[in-house]
Amino acid sequence: MKEKKILCQVLTTLGFATAAAFLFPSCGGGGGAGAGGASKTLIQNAGSDTMVNLAQAWAEAYATVDPGVSVEVSGGGSGTGIAALINGTTHIANCSRAMKDKEITKAKNQNDAEPKLFTMGLDALAVYVHKDNPLEKITIAQLGQIFGEGGTITKWTQLGVKASDGNDEIIRVSRQSNSGTYVYFKETVVSKGKEFKLGSRDLHGSKDVVELVGKTPSAIGYSGMGYATEEVKMLRIATETGNDAYEPNLENAQSGKYPIARPLFMYTLGDPKGATKAYIDWCLSEAGQKVVVDNGYIPISK
Amino acid sequence: MEKVIEFIIRVCGISAVIFVFAIFGFVFWEGRELLISGEFNFWKFLFTKEWYPASESNPRFGVLALIAGTASVTVLAMAIAVPFGLGAAIYISEFCGSRLREALKVIIELLAAIPSVVWGFIGLTIMNELIMKLFGAPIGLTVLNGAIILALMSVPIIVSISEDALKAVPDSYREAAIGLGVTRWQMVYKVLLPSAKNGLLAAVLLGIGRAVGETMAVLMATGHAVHIPFDGTPPFFHPLDSVRTLTATIAAELGETARGSEHYQVLFVVGILLFSITFAVNLTADLVVKGIRDK
Questions:
Q1: A93 at interface of B, judged by CB pairs closer than 8 A
Q2: C or N: which end of chain B has fewer Cβ atoms within 10 Å?
């Protein structure tokens, strides 16, 4: 008899737990779905690692604009965000690159809705070396020869400098292929259709790249200009030998003189509705664009 | 009532088998389209080193460099962990007093309780700088770094299983050996090691299984570079090169892929490969252990 009682208790507890799970679903119901309810409306916002700090800042600032909405930000890379959008696990995907045709088709087929693009700001991609590296400027072609498959530059002496630790081999620091920064750098610097040279150290985050370059005297890497630290130096970049080399900063990026600046996007599936629409509109408003400037990125010019 | 409980316990017992088959089935199912499609060349998959799974124009799926990465890190890790692990096991079981033994066992088990991401963090920060300083390497995220971390992670397994194997040798063997007037070391070397050799081998194999399957720590410590650390010029093996392992590749890339894409499927094929490797290692270990029991 005693055993039966215990079993009954276990079953009741389990029953309650299941019932509770059905009655009080987690707030991931969707943008706008829970607007009338007691719980907060949750907007899922995933993707670009470059944009994660910015997205977080937007989310925090928006909490004071509309306390009824909570924006949950996660990183992982543009590819991760797009995959999440296609698989229906996020409302907004942050992307530091445009969606590929393949991805757009997939999104359409799987969800019966066209992905919609919003340009949220600009990011200047900086090429970083260790602070003791004597190199000051570099051309796009040289970067292509360093990073691209079949490229011939592998030694610092080929660029006419010596790394401060005496090691002549160029240590390439790159990103994992789910990163929008990786794709953008591949397309604009390594040049379209070509691949990266294998053997680069492929790191997970924008910050990791800058940190590793700061610790490694013979390294070169690329990352958003907002991630600069005391330990690294940003190279000035020229389109070709003989042309002027420009420093990555606000004016040069907005004027288009700095050759590797790119737009930052948000994607939704179909036209955004309700809370998601209000959120994106706010991010594009003057208040939202101020957050962009505060985080070291370049606002979109109206 | 009795019957119900018996039934529940039986289900628990069988569930492990079901899970293993379900997982293998799932991994195989997710990768099936690519495996059976005519485009997939298994030979090329195993023996080329070009790993460009996300390429738009020319995707290439060669895992040779990843296999070399896993193999080099594992072998070097075992070269460090086996002598240390066996030495520690012999010391604990034969040479030290009972209080010290208990203390050592607790501490070594504590080593097994450190989460792998913490090990990875140690590799990324402390070991990185240490290797740069000690070996003058341009970068510390290398085979050596990953191997040291993995060695530390597999030592507890090797120690505890080896110690059990040594304990299982009947005391009469020891008494007989001492009775013949040998020294303690001679007894260990000539009597204990040969009679416990199956258990010791199993310990090493389970250590290897741990090392092959480990993900997070090696992802952080090895530099994650698609590169083969072997070449034709002496010393043939370069422990100060960065590599990337099979496990780390799956962990780093699976999140980005859309379900059902070619890239997604090839990662599952890598999963099948990995599963086969660890399965072979574990099976060998089990057969070896069974060998001891049947004796």
A1: no
A2: C
Name the helix (H) or strand (E) containing A264: strand A261-269
Q: Which of A247, A147, A242, A135 is nearest to A197 (CA)?
A: A147
Within-domain flag for A28: yes
Q: Does A301 fall in a domain?
A: no
Residue A203 forms beta bridges with which residues? A175
Query: Please, are residues A123 and A225 in contact by the beta-carbon 8 Å criterion?
Result: yes
Paired tokens of A294: 């505060």
Give me the DSSP letters along B128-148. HHHHHHHH--S-S-SHHHHHH
Among all residues of chain A, which has the CA nearest to that of B241?
A199
CATH number of B64-259: 1.10.3720.10
> Which CATH number covers residue A49?
3.40.190.10
A184 plus A144 within the same structural domain: yes
The ranges assigned to domains in chain B are: 64-259
Contact B88, B112 (CB under 8 A): no
Tens digits of pLDDT across chain A (302 residues)? 444 444 445 444 444 444 444 444 443 333 344 344 447 889 999 998 888 889 999 999 999 998 889 999 988 888 889 999 998 899 999 998 888 888 899 889 888 888 999 999 888 899 999 999 999 999 999 999 999 988 899 999 999 998 888 889 999 999 987 777 888 898 888 876 788 998 899 988 888 899 999 999 999 999 988 888 999 999 999 988 888 899 988 888 888 889 898 889 999 999 998 899 999 999 999 999 999 888 878 888 75
- Cα B28 from Cα B25, distance rounded (Å): 5
Chain B interface includes A199 (CB < 8 A): yes
181-240 in chain B: CB under 8 A from chain A: 223-227
